[in-house]
Design brief:
Blueprint lengths: L6 E7 L2 H16 L4 E7 L10 H6 L7 E2 L7 H19 L3 E5 L3 H12 L4 E4 L11 H12 L2 E4 L2 H9 L7 E3 L3 H8 L1 H7 L1 H4 L8 E4 L3 H4 L3 H13 L4 E4 L2 H10 L8 E4 L4 H9 L3 E4 L3 H9 L3 E3 L8 H4 L3 E3 L10 H7 L14 H16 L1
Parallel strand pairs: 1-2, 1-4, 2-3, 4-5, 5-6, 6-7, 8-9, 8-11, 9-10, 11-12, 12-13
Helix pairs in contact: 1-7, 1-17, 3-4, 4-5, 8-13
The protein binds uridine-diphosphate-N-acetylglucosamine.
Length: 369
């Protein structure tokens, strides 16, 4: 274990959405090197260059100290592989705290390993709940929160959920949204990227689409979804960077799109994706983080799911939960026309969440000394 003055924090990342959540936290920790030694572990849950390395480069995340290279597999295989490969790293590094972001299998696996070794866990983006246990992420969230000693939240309802589940208030810290820190820090580079122009699109005149959840893309709804994207494209051009899971499913079903107004792309890097988001007429998604990014940018978001674990995005008015009903996709132009403009940004989504989070770590470490 590190000395009282110098605390050793081991941060775990594994998938695309983790990188935006942890980049500002790792930067803040590394910036306070007189207080913290920071060790970065990449599980390798996401491994394609377009799903991982390009993000680390654009977000200026330092080269991970450990690469576990676990790759894909069933949930049990992936979780078990991460646990097996992370345990010796923790034994070797002997950290004072393990930090895990979000709700993916890497998050849960790392929290379990740390908790079993009696290493305290800090959970970034704690307390989100869809109340839908058929989502693998919901199971990951609930269990990770129960295992965590420090729970970093970004909205008041997250605190309420944790309290309802019996977690002591003293462990919960509403620090704000670290994913928005990344957006704020890179805003001028996002604007300079002008991806719409490079793709021949007109600002404010296309719908950006992302879909990757198993409930949608691994089931019969995918056929309907693709057909309805084509129908939507008659009214507004559609830009669709395709996640590898979705690409596999589309290829397996032999689904094709005839319209040249649907632009299917490989997964995009962060700056290009946010550049496309910030100039879109609307975004259609089943992602979690994109509901938050569109809220910050004031861009209408239509969520193709039956629920959201981010209700604050609906309350401020940018997000509309369409349900998992692909046949509603062509309604988007009418829904946009009926919409009242809103511009509220949730409290503490201000670019300073990582700073507040690390301040909590400083105070906590001083107390447990
Ligand atoms: C995972 C997360 C999900 C998150 C998403 C972001 C879990 C349970 N799910 O879902 O919460 O929203 O990441 O993208 O952790 N694949 C590649 N290359 C890669 C990574 C994946 O081709 O670099 C393909 C593989 O076929 C793999 C499939 O995508 O089997 C699914 O990957 P996986 O990591 O299991 O889950 P995601 O769908 O990406």
């Amino acid at each position: 274990m590190a000395t009282n003055q110098h605390q050793r924090i081991l941060a775990v990342i594994g998938t695309r959405p983790n990188f935006m959540k942890m980049a500002p936290v790792v930067a803040e920790l590394r910036g306070r090197s007189e207080e913290f030694d920071t060790i970065l572990v990449h599980t390798g849950q996401h491994y394609d260059r377009a799903m991982s390395q390009v993000f680390l480069e654009e977000l200026d995340v330092p080269e991970p100290d450990y690469q576990l290279e676990v790759g894909s597999g069933s949930h049990a295989q992936q979780t078990a592989r991460i646990m097996e490969r992370l345990e010796p790293v923790l034994l070797d590094c002997d950290p004072d705290l393990v930090l895990v972001p979000g709700d993916v299998n890497s998050t849960l696996a790392a929290a379990l390993v740390a908790a079993k070794l009696l290493v305290p866990v800090g959970h970034v983006e704690a307390g989100l709940r869809s109340f839908d246990r058929s989502m693998p992420e919901e199971v990951n969230r609930v269990v990770t929160d129960q295992l965590s000693d420090l729970l970093f939240t970004h909205s008041p309802e997250a605190n309420d959920h944790l309290i309802d589940e019996g977690i002591a208030g003293a462990r919960i810290h509403c620090v704000g949204n670290t994913m928005i820190d990344t957006l704020v820090a890179l805003r001028s580079r996002i604007e300079a990227a002008d991806a719409p122009m490079r793709l021949g699109l007109t600002h404010g005149d296309y719908v950006l689409v992302t879909l990757h959840r198993p409930a949608l893309v691994d089931g019969p709804a995918l056929v309907d979804t693709v057909a309805n994207l084509e129908a939507l494209s008659h009214a507004l051009p559609v830009v669709f960077p395709v996640h590898p899971r979705t690409r596999k499913a589309i290829d397996a079903l032999g689904l094709g799109i005839q319209s040249d107004r649907v632009l299917m792309l490989e997964p995009l890097a962060y700056l290009d994706f946010l550049s496309l988001t910030s100039a879109a007429a609307a975004v259609l998604t089943d992602s979690g983080g994109i509901q938050e990014e569109t809220t910050y940018l004031g861009i209408p978001c239509f969520t193709l799911r039956n629920n959201t674990e981010r209700p604050v995005t609906v309350e401020v008015g940018t997000n509309t939960v369409l349900g998992q009903t692909p046949q509603r996709i062509p309604e988007i132009p009418d829904l946009l026309a009926q919409r009242e403009r809103t511009g509220d940004i949730p409290l503490l989504w201000d670019g300073h969440a990582a700073e507040r989070l690390v301040n909590v770590l400083t105070r906590h470490m001083a107390m447990v000394g």
